[in-house]
Every structure is written in structure tokens, then in C-alpha cells.
Amino acid sequence: MAFNALVPTLEVENMDETITFYQSLLDFECISRDNDKWAFVQKDDVGIMLSSRFHEDKHPKPVFTGGLYIYVDDIDVIWQILKDKVDICYPIEIFEYGMREFAIYDCNGYRIQFGQELEPN
Questions:
Q1: Which among 46, 60, 68, 103 is least surrounded, fewest beta carbons within 10 Å?
Q2: What is the pTM of this model?
């Protein structure tokens, strides 16, 4: 039995604003969309589904306590592109577990982390 892919689904407040965020700032492409109900955005091998809100009465704001971690091949270029255009969660730094990374928030408050493995010494 194989697991072939993991594609998170994020509930969003405003579909147009969210798609624009991912397209204009993160260079994703909107592959498919069903009005304001659902969309699929993708960049390279990273895909994210976006959906309208479920159970908004119980959860007035989108809630996700984790983060989306995206492995990249040139962390410094991505940092330079994004650092002055987005809400930063934590700036670029090196972590003891061998990653150079930073994190931002998207327009819905979801944390997106970008990381690059350090070259072994």
C-alpha cells in the first residue's frame, strides 16, 4: 500500500485574495477553481487546495495550529523576494537540526515555512 501525495486543504476567507497572494508572491499557478467554493494552486511539486469556510459558526476565523513546510533549493533568493512583502513569522536563520529557514504568514494567517538543508561540513 503506497501513499502517493499529501495536499493540504486550507479554508480561506476570500478566495480571490488568497489565490492572488499565492500567485503574485509565491509564484503558484491556479490549476483549477470552482468559483468561491474550491481552488487548487501549485508550484513545482507543491500543491495546496483552498476551500470556502466550513462550520464558520463554530470557528469564526480559519484555524490551523501547524505550518506548511516547503523545502526549497535557494532559501536566500526566496527570502530576498518575500522579506519586505509579507508578514514575517520568524526571519531567516540556521537551526541546529541542519536547516536554514524562515516563516511567513499568508493572507489568512496560515504559517508557511521555507527551509533548505545545509551542506554537510
A1: 60
A2: 0.91
